[in-house]
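Why do we care about 3D structure at all? Because function follows from shape, and shape follows, mostly, from sequence. That is the central idea of this module. The next example makes it concrete: a single protein chain, its amino acid sequence, and then its structure expressed as tokens.
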Amino acid sequence: MSEIKGAIFDLDGTLIDSMYVWEKVDRDFLAQRGIPVTAEYTDAMRKMFFETAAQYTIETYHLKETVEEITKIWLDMARYEYEHHVRCKPFVHQYLDKLKSEKIRLGMATSSDPYLLEPVMKNNGLDKYFDQICYTSEVGRNKSNPDIYLYTARKLGIQPEKCVVFEDIPEGINGALKAGMKTVAVFDQASGNCIDIMRNNADMFIMGYDEILEVDIWKETD
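And the structure:
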């Protein structure tokens, strides 16, 4: 049986409690323009890259701003939250310490923007843990696809089958499974309506990191 050598983590909703930020940005941005947020808009935005979301917003609400102007406004609004309010989920530091003590190489596979990631990583003391940080923008495909996970494993120098991926959304779990990796689904309130899908698809489902602090999930079994 081969041991797991690398752990790949999503950031938003998996390591940090940040999923509220984007709903707040959407709500505040549209409120400033006298536009109410609809469930349809929120659901559509979750599935888009940043620039695509900006274009969708312009077309949906007939806004005069350019894609570049809107993405800058959004990033500045989100960065304020990431700098001042976003914190790690409980037991994250203890669990990452455990992995480092076991010589597991750590990678991050994120759809976030470096402009947001850098302050939240530094403020929460996460920057010291990760051997590689990789972005979906580097591979040009979203997390429903295996590309970002394979890319991160390659940067870590570890074979895909010796990696485990921690994600909070079904799309991420499915992309990691397509990459031939083990998966741990991490509960987040923002994807709470997907619990059954996550339980059924992932190799393991956890409500929090305290559940696996004392558990050895690294050796494959028959």
